[in-house]
Write a structure and sequence with these properties.
single chain, 531 residues, 5-stranded mixed β-sheet, two-stranded antiparallel ribbon, 64% helix, 6% strand
Length: 531
């Protein structure tokens, strides 16, 4: 197919992808440019806020020439690993491009890919181009009502910075939430949908070529997100069982063998790491990703419940084209019953799957709105439907904009130039350093800006986090010089980053001057180095 013909055929996903990129450029441009005078944007957003520090630390290592990545939040010796996403993206970081900008560019590319994946899936599920377009847009926005739970906890006065909220406004459940998080999450959702849909098609159509395509996509997904191996395994079993009569035993064995090849890259990458004490601890034990509160799920799933009830009342049976979605949800629910610590990951992309199952109602409402007369009424009603579908997205965007303005919250997105200057100083230090700061959020963001190790930072990345964090808190509160020196010595800290005058006065009094000396000072930021 000629390029001109391909563009003409895919004009809608191309335009939607461009529109999504423009939105992301504006959204993250606002974050970047809204920094108060004398401050800079850290690079995070409301979605995956602390996790983005980890991702940017990978890019920092890439900019320093490393293909094998270490955990800069672990002071203990540990095995390095190759990450098929961040290690490769790190090659581009060697150009000297700002890691925040590089991450945004990778977000744009992944977003365009996701639009195409959703559009192709929508084409299979609908019978007209208009419906396919509506479905694609709704897939990105989601039709969930978790924002109702947010309103409820707000009016009852229990809203806080880390209050547990509904899944569609705080986890990978929602496609729109994913769009505001790490770029690899967007790619993850695209690969997840591709892998599931192609696997089902391969087995239902007895197509070995399609099976190899599904295996390839799944292999790349597992190589950087091994969370989904259990989900896919159960999903494959459901698909094979559903088509056992048409396949026959010989083909069941063949398809099982082909789809099992998707495990090879993940096995090569992660099997050796499971025996590494540090990796096994912070990824397999500390990385607890639980579900949102039970009550919040009532609000989140309310539109889906209405759509399925309407479908049942109208006696609209599930078509063959929808069976893969039922298998996806069924496999996910089965995984939630297993003792997996990363249950939240299993619900990734559910907003898309549940929207697909409720399409008969949503498309009926859309057709009703588009059929209003005169024409301007059709536009008004369609616009109202779009607004209703956008409430979850609107909630996230407005919350982000309010947080970057509120003094008690904007500190999570911006820091003074003096902090960045101190990070540049630490980055240029020769040799290995173990750093801690008097502010925990600065600890989290020290690795991506220095390429150095932080004693205790991100809770999912710091081995023995609870013990280390307890010691760190004692360090920042103690008035006993011996206790402070013992903690720093026990932790192996070589550099202490101080960000307030009160903290500087206290540490100056606590620490012996012949062991700790100031090596950097700018405004209220001081770095003390152990001699």
């Amino acid at each position: 197919m000629k390029m001109k013909d391909w563009v003409g055929k895919n004009r809608f996903p191309i335009l939607l992808g461009i529109g999504l990129v423009i939105f992301e450029m504006i959204f993250f441009g606002l974050l970047w440019l809204s920094a108060p005078n004398g401050q800079q944007w850290l690079g995070d957003s409301i979605s995956n806020s602390s996790d983005l520090a980890v991702y940017l630390s990978y890019l920092k290592q890439g900019s320093q020439g490393h293909m094998l990545l270490g955990n800069l939040y672990a002071t203990e010796p540990h095995a390095l690993r190759f990450d098929p996403y961040w290690s490769v993206l790190g090659l581009l970081a060697r150009s000297g491009m700002d890691a925040r900008l590089l991450h945004e560019i990778s977000r744009w590319l992944a977003s365009v890919l996701l639009v195409f994946v959703l559009y192709v899936a929508a084409k299979d599920l609908t019978r007209s181009e208009k419906h396919a377009r509506w479905t694609t847009v709704l897939s990105l926005l989601g039709l969930n009502a978790g924002w109702l739970y947010t309103i409820w906890i707000y009016f009852f006065g229990v809203w806080r910075w880390k209050t547990e909220t509904a899944a569609d406004v705080s986890t990978e459940f929602s496609a729109f939430y994913i769009l505001l998080g790490g770029s690899h999450m967007i790619l993850s959702l695209a690969l997840l949908i591709c892998g599931l849909r192609w696997s089902w098609q391969a087995i239902s159509q007895s197509s070995m070529r399609q099976a190899w395509k599904a295996a390839l996509v799944s292999a790349y997904l597992f190589s950087f997100h091994p969370y989904f191996i259990a989900l896919f395994g159960i999903y494959f079993l459901i698909a094979l069982h559903q088509h056992r009569k048409t396949l026959g035993m010989k083909n069941i064995v063949r398809f099982s063998a082909v789809l099992s090849t998707s495990l090879i890259p993940a096995f090569i990458i992660y099997a050796p790491l499971v025996f590494d004490k540090v990796f096994a601890t912070h990824h397999l034990e500390d990385n607890q990703l639980g579900l949102s509160p039970a009550l919040s799920w009532v609000a989140t799933l309310l539109p889906t419940a209405i759509a399925l009830a309407w479908r049942w009342k109208k006696r609209i049976a599930f078509r063959n084209e929808e069976r893969w979605i039922l298998a996806w949800i069924g496999a996910s629910v089965f995984c939630l019953l297993l003792p997996l610590p990363w249950k939240r990951k299993v619900t990734e992309g559910w907003s898309v799957a549940l929207l697909y199952l409720g399409l008969p109602l949503w498309l009926t409402i859309g057709d009703w709105a588009a059929s209003r007369r005169p024409k301007f009424m059709a536009w008004i009603m369609s616009g109202l439907m779009f607004v209703a579908a956008s409430f979850g997205a609107f909630h996230l965007v407005t919350t982000q904009l309010s947080w970057i303005k509120a003094p008690e919250w904007k500190i999570y997105f911006y820091r003074p130039e003096s902090v960045f200057a101190a990070w540049r100083y630490l980055e240029n230090k020769d040799g290995r350093a173990i750093i801690t700061a008097d502010n925990f959020w600065i600890n989290c963001w020290t690795p991506p800006y220095t390429g150095k190790t932080t004693w205790v930072g991100h809770d999912h990345e710091s081995p023995d986090f609870k013990n280390k964090y307890g010691l760190w808190q004692r360090l920042t509160e103690t008035r006993d010089g011996k206790e402070a020196q013992d903690i720093l010595e026990q932790a192996g800290v070589t550099d202490l980053m101080i960000t307030s005058e009160d903290s500087l006065d206290r540490f100056t009094e606590l620490l012996p001057k012949d062991e700790w000396r100031p090596v950097f000072t700018q405004d209220q930021v001081t770095v003390l180095e152990r001699d």
